[in-house]
């Protein structure tokens, strides 16, 4: 499928194109899809379930870019490269923190399960059950 690069709507995506190789052009196509998503939301155009699923998936894959595109299209505020890098670093930090918290929670849950099983096993033996 051929992409019409002239249809890029935001300066943010134009700037990302300048730093993207031809081999990675699918990233720019995805960002253009996010521009289309924001445009359709702005004019209140119906978004089908399939389109909604696709746009949501792309927005999750590129959350910082989505916010930058949205901000430019809705508020007219261009995100500088430095600001984009800062936003990306903050996003990555939050993702890592969430991952670590999830691992810690899972570890605590596994430990609690082992403790409960040990307690149940002890009662089992006290009642004459075999190991």
β-strand number: 0
How many DSSP helices? 5
Report the mean per-residue pLDDT as an integer: 94
Radius of gyration: 24 Å
Terminus-to-terminus distance: 65 Å
Uncertain stretches: none
Provide an overview of this structure:
The chain is mainly alpha-helical. The chain has helices at 11-18, 25-42, 49-61, 63-75, 81-126. Helix 2 packs across helix 4 (63-75). The mean pLDDT is 94.
Question: Which secondary structure elements does this structure contain, and how are they paired or packed?
Answer:
Layout lengths: L10 H8 L6 H18 L6 H13 L1 H13 L5 H46 L5
Name the features.
single chain, 131 residues, mainly alpha
Give a quick summary of the entry.
The chain is mostly helical and 131 residues long.
């Amino acid at each position: 499928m051929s992409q019409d690069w002239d249809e890029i709507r935001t300066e943010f995506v134009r700037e990302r194109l300048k730093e993207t190789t031809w081999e990675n052009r699918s990233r720019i196509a995805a960002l253009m899809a996010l521009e289309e998503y924001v445009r359709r939301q702005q004019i209140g155009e119906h978004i089908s379930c399939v389109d909604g699923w696709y746009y949501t998936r792309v927005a999750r894959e590129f959350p910082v870019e989505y916010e930058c595109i949205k901000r430019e299209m809705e508020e007219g505020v261009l995100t500088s490269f430095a600001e984009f890098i800062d936003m990306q670093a903050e996003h990555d930090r939050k993702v890592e923190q969430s991952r670590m918290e999830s691992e810690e929670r899972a570890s605590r849950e596994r430990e609690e399960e082992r403790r409960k099983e040990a307690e149940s096993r002890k009662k089992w033996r006290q009642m004459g059950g075999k190991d």
